[in-house]
Amino acid sequence: MRWENLTDDDTGASDAHGRTPDAALFGADAVTTRTVDTPEFRGVTFHEIRARSIVNRVPGASRMPFEWTVNPYRGCTHACVYCFARNTHSYLDLDTGLGFDSQIVVKVNAPQLLRHRLASRTWHGEHIAMGTNVDCYQRAEGRYRLMPGIIEALRDYANPFSILTKGTLVLRDLDLLRQAAEVTEVGISVSVGFVDRELWRTVEPGTPAPERRLDVVRALADAGIGCGVLMAPVIPFLGDRPEQLRETVRAIARAGATSVTPLVLHLRPGAREWFMAWLETHHPYLVRRYERLYAHGAYAPTWYQRRVTRQVHELAQEFGIGPTRSGAARRIQERAEPAPGRAGPEPTQLTLL
Ligand code: SF4
Predict the structure, then answer these.
(1) Most-buried pick from 89, 235, 270, 306 (CB within 10 A)?
(2) Digit-coded pLDDT (tens) for 273-310
(3) In the chain, what are the domains?
């Protein structure tokens, strides 16, 4: 495995010291590999890393609506077939298919590194986004408990932050999130692209069920921490029928989400091959349609994205999902403009979740 010359995430972020993506994050002598033989983690291997940096800068040219990210894990046991972070595993000479789902890199010193960085005189309290590469509340977090230390550091330095997740584990840290929200801006978003259980079981096999994720939205709302929903991905021909969109937006509204932002499936290299192989197995009759829809790259055509976005916005209005409250925390699914001349996704494509 190559454990040096890494960038932290597939946004091409450089680290907080301005080092380029070529800068080494991990020392080759700092890797401890553990295979955990408990039923919960059977078949999962953890690579415990002492990272050299944890706060990463998104390049200025990026379309991401945030500049700084923290990602304590690489790889994700949530195992979404379409996950765009899959390709990042190839940087480690790890497999981007099953390897991404089961070979998890854990930056065990993430809380200490973050606290150190926040204390630095060169840090100016910028917003930090989490869950931008892989899910920081994936199942591994139940074992390693890195997020409490991370949130505590952010709370202690009153540093604004946002989290995007599919993990119900975020509720474990509800008290800490509440404490942080008293001193700084905290934005939580949950990703729910559809509520179709059959689709969920096959395409997001390691994730909590959509209704459990919506319970998270509800619990956060009850706790006074507004939560938006990133309705992602909307999967063409499998999750985009009008009645499916309606059912999903209605469930999101009932959960008390402060906002809903649709995002159509995109298929970057790494994710594309894995997703198409899955499609061939589960829905072979759709392969040709997908090849046509994604003939020009990673994104579905603009007309298709616009149609889905319009439908969801109309449904959101019908079900009374309001815009993000004025003064509420910045949420990481805010819209971003496509780069000039590029047919990007309708809402920002910042996230895999
Ligand atoms: S899409 Fe998100 S939750 Fe799913 S595997 Fe990727 S990082 Fe994990």
Answers:
(1) 89
(2) 999 999 999 999 999 999 999 999 999 999 999 999 99
(3) 14-318 (3.20.20.70)
